[in-house]
């Protein structure tokens, strides 16, 4: 019983074994896509803010009009790009697979650096600023800053899904292909909700996804080389997580009072289960 709740659980061991097999050549794919995006923008004379927005206008309006037909669904799904939501849904892994959380924390710090620096570097105005004379749908709060590129939510989504992608990568080739297809498709669909709610352009999402994938990989490689998060699996630190889980629950309850979204209830439910599990393990130590 103890083995299933410790850092040596089957899930944790499986993730560790998968991480050990990863090679640096995996970075070639996202770098290829980044170069492809730059060449595409260069070809269309869109390496400046004005044309970057202009060449995406029709695509943005089309995707926005289609996805906005399901406002409640996409507004709930887009919350998965919020660390509070995505992390809350994954809290049980702290107990049964701490290595996943070690990689996720390292990856999230990298993604935060990418998002902060790139948004300030490019300073692209949001659709609400750029298309003020063009009708499109905005769901939720209107975002009007000059921080559209890249999409932070997309970076978070792809960072999280990349860690999960390699954590649970199947061994058989046919299952591996299906798993990769499922993860990438799901992550990209969730990221596209940022266009659906009128917060980002399509390339913001695509570029954010690339940097999210890079962040996820870097998080895994950093954790594999440096043992900075090993304390996560140590039960004596569980009270720290218990307090954090309670704070997250309170934060979500406050959010519910402002926006009664079903995704918040799922997050709270996950936190409550994790809180019960981690408290039980700590008391029985």
UniProtKB/TrEMBL annotation:
Primary residence: membrane
InterPro entries referenced in this protein's UniProt entry, alphabetically: PAP2/HPO (IPR000326), PAP2/HPO_sf (IPR036938)
UniProtKB keywords: Cell membrane, Hydrolase, Membrane, Transmembrane, Transmembrane helix
Gene3D superfamilies from the UniProt entry: Phosphatidic acid phosphatase type 2/haloperoxidase (1.20.144.10)
Membrane topology note: Multi-pass membrane protein
Subcellular localization: Cell membrane
Transmembrane residue ranges: 24-42, 74-97, 104-122, 151-170, 177-199, 205-224, 236-256, 262-283
Keyword flag Hydrolase: yes
SUPFAM superfamilies linked: Acid phosphatase/Vanadium-dependent haloperoxidase (SSF48317)
Record carries keyword Zinc-finger: no
Domain of life, per lineage: Bacteria
Record domain Phosphatidic acid phosphatase type 2/haloperoxidase: where: 103-220
Pfam families the record matches: PAP2
Full protein name: Phosphatase PAP2 family protein
Source organism of this protein record: Flavobacterium azizsancarii
């Amino acid at each position: 019983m103890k083995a299933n709740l410790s850092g040596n659980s089957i899930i944790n061991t499986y993730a560790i074994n998968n991480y050990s097999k990863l090679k640096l050549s995996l970075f070639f794919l996202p770098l290829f896509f980044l170069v492809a995006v730059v060449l595409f923008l260069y070809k269309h004379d869109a390496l400046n803010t004005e044309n970057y927005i202009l060449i995406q206008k029709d695509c943005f309006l089309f995707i926005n009009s289609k996805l906005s037909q399901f406002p409640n669904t996409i507004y709930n799904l887009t919350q998965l790009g919020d660390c509070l939501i995505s992390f809350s849904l994954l809290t049980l892994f702290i107990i049964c697979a701490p290595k996943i959380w070690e990689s996720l924390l390292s990856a999230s710090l990298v993604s935060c650096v990418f998002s902060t620096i790139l948004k300030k570097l490019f300073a692209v105005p949001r659709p609400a600023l750029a298309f003020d004379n063009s009708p499109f749908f905005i769901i939720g709060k209107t975002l009007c800053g000059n921080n559209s590129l890249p999409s932070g939510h997309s970076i978070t989504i792809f960072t999280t899904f990349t860690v999960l992608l390699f954590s649970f990568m199947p061994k058989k080739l046919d299952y591996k292909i299906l798993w990769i297809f499922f993860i990438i498709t799901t992550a990209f669909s969730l990221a596209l909700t940022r266009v659906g709610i009128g917060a980002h352009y399509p390339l913001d999402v695509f570029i954010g996804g690339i940097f999210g994938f890079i962040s996820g990989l870097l998080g895994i490689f950093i954790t594999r080389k440096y043992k900075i998060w090993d304390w996560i699996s140590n039960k004596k630190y569980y009270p720290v997580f218990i307090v954090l889980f309670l704070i997250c629950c309170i934060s979500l309850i406050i959010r519910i009072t402002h926006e009664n979204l079903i995704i918040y209830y799922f997050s709270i439910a996950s936190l409550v289960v994790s809180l019960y599990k981690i408290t039980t393990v700590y008391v029985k130590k």
